[in-house]
Specification:
Layout (H helix, E strand, L loop, with lengths): L5 E11 L18 E14 L2 E2 L4 E8 L8 E8 L4 H11 L9 H7 L1 E10 L2 E5 L4 E6 L3 E6 L1 E2 L6 E2 L2 E3 L8 E11 L5 E16 L2 E2 L11
Parallel strand pairs: 5-6
Antiparallel strand pairs: 1-2, 1-14, 2-3, 2-4, 4-5, 7-8, 8-9, 9-13, 10-11, 12-13, 13-14, 14-15
């Protein structure tokens, strides 16, 4: 199949209801039996065909009743209010997995969603510092998430941890963090000190473009 020529270099933040590390990353069951959380990204550089996507942001809230691969998920998409009509259409097409191989991130996740909660166009606050392992994203009266370093339970010192997945479809390498987040509406959530990650990953129609993604270990 021939896909539209597209690429997005992203700064990404994500949180979920699992304990640090997230069993899902190791093909285990979710910590609480279900999976829910929030995510956000900022496009450092990107395009969809001739449509430029540089600087735009996206976010979302999600929930699966069991493990992600078992399906039954619900998802609320949030798109940067600054996006033009063409940019909105491009971003929603990418996120829907319609222009990506079935074995790649957006296509895989989209295939597990049974309940589309629609799309909100809003201002998305976004802060991201990969080296410091800190970040925050928020959409007024809908969701808010903050990430900080995991702390040593004895000394309180920052505890650095990485997940490296040589064949990962969502990222190859990410900094682990401690997340605190909430959301309102059809997917109400409220968590503290749960799994979170920060990554700089580039995606295209055939998956991760490693030559354009910066390994965390190289700064």
């Amino acid at each position: 199949m021939t896909y539209t020529n597209w690429m997005i270099k992203t700064k990404r933040l994500a949180t979920c209801s699992c304990d640090y590390g997230c069993p899902c990353e190791f093909n285990g069951r979710p910590t609480r039996g279900f999976c829910e959380g929030l995510e956000a990204f900022e496009i450092v550089e990107g395009h969809f065909g001739e449509v430029r996507l540089d600087g735009l942001r996206g976010a979302g809230a999600y929930r699966w009743p069991g493990a992600v691969h078992e399906g039954g998920g619900a998802y609320l998409a949030i798109i940067d209010e600054r996006a033009t009509e063409a940019q909105r259409e491009a971003l929603l097409t990418i996120l829907s997995g319609q222009e990506q191989e079935p074995t790649t991130a957006f296509s895989i996740y989209a295939s597990t969603i049974d309940k589309d909660l629609g799309t909100v166009f809003a201002h998305i606050e976004f802060e991201w510092d990969l080296k410091a392992r800190t970040g925050r994203f928020a959409v007024h009266d809908i969701l808010d998430a903050s990430l900080e370093p995991i702390r040593n339970p004895v000394t309180g010192a920052p505890h650095r941890a990485l997940i490296k997945l040589p064949q990962g479809f969502e990222f190859r390498e990410a900094e682990m963090a401690s997340s605190t987040f909430w959301s309102k509406g059809e997917l109400p959530q409220d968590y503290k000190n749960c799994y979170g990650f920060l990554t700089y990953t580039t995606y295209g129609p055939y998956g991760i473009l490693e030559e354009h993604s910066y390994p965390v270990t190289e700064g």
